[in-house]
Design goal:
Helix 4 runs parallel beside helix 6 and helix 5 (about 165-180) packs across helix 9. By secondary structure, the protein is of the alpha+beta class. The chain has a four-stranded antiparallel β-sheet with strand order 1-2-4-3, with helices on both faces. A hairpin with a 2-residue loop joins strand 3 and strand 4. The chain is built from nine helices and nine strands. The N and C termini lie far apart (about 55 Å).
């Protein structure tokens, strides 16, 4: 049984994320690990208490156990709100098991992601944000796709309940940046999907997204300077590409 298999793994003092095959089904066992509470994260947490710096909020200042309980609560809530997230099949103190929902977008053939999947992705984030939840650190590795090309969101350790407009806008900015890794996706395709998100979030959230873009634009010269010496620097390329994309909405 799934519970017996999980308990044996946990008793061996394992930690991290472990793949389990049970009764012709695949599951993922997530076990609490080390605390991530360091000086930088403590400073970020203090800054986040100031409204204008709320985008610095991090759940890593919580203990490992607290983060796990937080993630489980968010998964249950989002499931009730019909957001595509993994189902919790089994859980206990410091661990939980979810059903396998597919492969991360950063590991599949890029040709599987077209306009339809992109639109679904942005619709999923609009549903997340409509429920006042911010993912916290969206990246292609946290978005999975199954054999039917249905998408789901993973890893809510850093998620924020009752998120501010700024925190939800930060989600979208980080997502747009990471989508630059899918080089076959054009700016036009991103713009079409972004409009879907825009239509389903508040005007405040949309305004905050443009504010973030204007803020980062002031420092775009730094990204260009880096590229003079490191032409393949991905972060600089992502920042400049995202700034250019959102400039079209001003």
């Amino acid at each position: 049984m799934l519970a017996d298999t999980c308990n044996k793994i946990i008793e061996s003092n394992a930690s991290g994320v472990i793949k389990i095959n049970e009764d012709q089904s695949t599951y993922w066992l997530k076990i609490s690990g080390e605390d991530k509470n360091n000086f930088v994260r403590k400073v970020s947490a203090q800054l986040a208490k100031i409204k204008m710096f709320s985008f610095f909020e991090t759940k890593a200042v919580m203990s490992s156990f607290e983060r796990f309980e937080h993630e489980k609560a968010v998964l249950r809530y989002l499931s009730e709100m019909n957001v595509n997230v993994p189902h919790i099949a089994y859980e206990g103190p410091g661990f939980f098991v979810t059903s396998d929902e597919g492969k991360p977008l950063n590991t599949i053939q890029q040709s599987r992601i077209g306009q339809t999947e992109l639109n679904e992705l942005f619709t999923m984030f609009s549903r997340l944000h409509a429920n006042n939840v911010a993912h916290g650190r969206p990246a292609l590795r946290d978005i999975v796709i199954n054999d039917e090309n249905n998408l789901s969101l993973l890893d809510f350790e850093e998620s924020i309940l009752n998120a501010t407009s700024q925190q939800m806008a930060r989600d979208m900015y980080m997502l747009l940046m990471d989508l630059c890794r899918l080089q076959h996706i054009t700016s036009e395709q991103k713009s079409e999907a972004l409009l879907i998100w825009k239509e389903n979030v508040s005007e405040n959230v949309w305004s905050e997204l443009l504010k973030i873009n204007r803020f980062l634009k002031h420092f775009s010269f730094l990204a260009r300077t880096v590229l003079l010496f490191k032409k393949k620097n991905k972060l600089s390329q992502q920042i400049l590409s995202t700034i250019k994309l959102l400039d079209n909405f001003e």
